[in-house]
Amino acid sequence: MATLSVIGSTSLITYAVFQNIQKSPEIRPLLYLSFSDLLLGICWLTETLLYGTSVPSKDIICYNLQAVGQIFYISSFLYTVNYIWYLCTELRMKYNQSGQSTPPLVIDYTCRVSQMAFILSSLIPLLLVTPVFCLGNASECFRNFSQSHRCILMHSPPSTMTELMPSANTSVCSALYFYGITIFLTSFLLSLLTIMVLLIQAQTLFKKFVKSTGFLGSEQWAMIHTVDQRVRLYPVAFFCCWGPAVILMIIKLIRPQDTKLHMTLYVLQALTATSQGLLNCGVYGWTQHKFHQLKEEARRDADTQTPLLCSQKRFYSRGLDSLESTPAFATSASTIL
């Protein structure tokens, strides 16, 4: 699954580069998310390769690779929130500026906030995982880290550490273990809560937007329908990928001795957590296909409409036509969709 995730992330990045849309303000957060998924997939593939080989300093490499992986999956949480936030912001701008041109100051403000969100999404995970690097290596928490499948597991229980670590370092390594689980669960739950709030806001804006603009032209409806699908499906993909890992971490804290249940959840987590790049690519490709399908259906319907109905559609969609000519809306229509 990690290989498929790498392929999916690479495909999405390659598509954006060849379509020359990588600099688009709305595609940028999605590229950051895909790049984070790509690096995370590479980390897991490297750990898998190390698991079956014998190399010098294997324990140190496995330990630090897992710490690097923590940076990337926390980054993927934040980049997912960043992308969904940008979709909601674009929709809010379209609603507030309905029938008018979007002021350059509004667009500039959105771009600045998006850039700041990217910086924070990259910096916060690095700062959170820094203690794992510094204290873990200083306390030699990497000792025997390649034993008992630990190189390919997200977190190792402190009982294993107690058996393998010197008594002087056990407390530090156990604290780092619980710290790693804490930042994972906290970052996931905060991201999920933020995504749910944004999802509710987006649905409210969709309803207001449709009601305020009256009759929607076929292409305008296709664009709004596609954005609606993306706002819904990306959170679903996010939860499906990381939900089993979160359940595993919680159960390990509540029932640390239930190894059979742990192994079942480890297998499920290995299949889902490593597939985020593939699912994100699938969501983008499917919504892109549906958008073009809706446009084709609209063109076929237009050939069978009476002149009176065509004139009514042009009248009702005149306000949206002016909205579509704004820079922010044009970006969504011509590049993302």
Automatic annotation (TrEMBL):
Keywords: Membrane, Transmembrane, Transmembrane helix. GO terms for molecular function: G protein-coupled receptor activity. It is found in: Membrane. The chain crosses the membrane at residues 30-51, 71-88, 117-138, 176-200, 233-254, 266-286. Its main location: membrane. GO terms for biological process: adenylate cyclase-activating G protein-coupled receptor signaling pathway. InterPro entries: GCR1-cAMP_receptor. The keyword Cell membrane does not apply. It is a multi-pass membrane protein. One of its GO terms (cellular component) is plasma membrane. This is Transmembrane protein 116 isoform X3. It comes from Carlito syrichta (Philippine tarsier). The gene is TMEM116.
